[in-house]
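Pipeline run #58 for the internal structure catalog. This entry was flagged by the ingest filter as a single-chain record with no existing model, so it goes straight to prediction. Upstream metadata was stripped on purpose; only the residue string is passed forward. Reviewer on rotation: M.T. Logging verbosity set to normal.
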Amino acid sequence: MRHYYLSIFALFIFAFSINAQNNIKLKFNKNGEFKILQFTDTHIDFDHNKNLNVYDIIKTVIKIENPDFVILTGDVITQNNPLPGYLRFSDIFKKAKIPWAVIFGNHDGEGNVHRDEIAKYLTNLPYCLNSDNGTDDGIFGASNFILPVYGKNNKTKSLLYCMDSNSNSTLPTVNGYGWFNFSQIDWYLKQSSKYTI
């Protein structure tokens, strides 16, 4: 019976944290400013002890800049299992109470965890605003989503389009890394039209 109550309590806490995460809104301040802190190509790799100082650098820059939002734009964690690395990021942003998001680059699925699995994992981390869980929604890639930034009277003042730049070429005659797919471009055009009409 005690185990039953603990399970219900854990489920309640999980549901509450997800609900709180979904209620986070990006907002311009009273001066009409919204500060974004971007980090890219951090290539953190615990397997080979590479770039582990990035976490401390990010903490320092957050203290100096006091951003409203942090975005990690591709090639973030390149080890076999990137999930513990994202959990460490989550701890930093949770302590700072700063919303954050991740967009995948060409190296973000080269380990043992598929991009879709990483995308699903991110949607459950505190303060992370990723909303694309990698499921087959007809849009190529696993980190395509829009983040509205609100102004006065809770009206959308700006949009942050987040798009997966994908890993490898999908064309047999073209070698190398990926690019935006036509389904992503179509998605962008439809979303842009929806927000501007």
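catalog note: The chain has five helices and six strands.
catalog note: The beta strands are 26-27, 36-39, 69-73, 100-103, 145-150, 156-162.
status: ready for reviewer M.T.
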